[in-house]
């Protein structure tokens, strides 16, 4: 477990809270704005994150992505892509 935490800290990425406007549809609108095109920064630049902040981490080969639970709790869902296809990350 310690090895995975170190890997995420070294090559991990932190989610920057950017979201697109929710598209109009015939369905009932969601009570939050989803993050449809997440942008990432290197973990070393994520100065807004603290040592006790919760992250949801995903590894795809040698690529690691980390989604901040605090941002997920505000937006509900992040729609992202991995090499194998689309994913939805929620908290």
Summarize the topology.
Elements lengths: L1 H10 L1 E4 L22 E4 L12 E6 L2 E6 H7 L1 E6 L2 E6 L1
Antiparallel strand pairs: 1-2, 3-4, 5-6
Provide structural commentary.
This protein is α+β, with helices and mostly antiparallel strands. It has one domain. It is built from 2 helices and 6 strands, in the order H-E-E-E-E-H-E-E. It has helices spanning 2-11, 69-75, and strands at 13-16, 39-42, 55-60, 63-68, 77-82, 85-90. The model is unreliable at 1-23 (pLDDT under 50).
What is the structure about, briefly put?
The protein contains two helices and six strands; from the N terminus they run αββββαββ. It is α+β, with helices and mostly antiparallel strands.
Main attributes of the structure:
alpha+beta; two-stranded antiparallel sheet; disordered N terminus; 91 residues
């Amino acid at each position: 477990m310690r090895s995975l935490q170190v890997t995420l800290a070294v090559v991990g990425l932190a989610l920057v809270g950017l979201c697109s406007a929710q598209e109009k549809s015939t369905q009932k609108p969601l009570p939050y704005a989803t993050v449809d095109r997440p942008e990432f920064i290197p973990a070393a630049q994520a100065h807004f994150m603290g040592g006790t902040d919760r992250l949801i981490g995903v590894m795809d080969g040698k690529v690691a992505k980390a989604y901040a639970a605090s941002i997920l709790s505000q937006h509900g869902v992040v729609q992202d892509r991995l090499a194998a296809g689309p994913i939805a990350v929620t908290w």
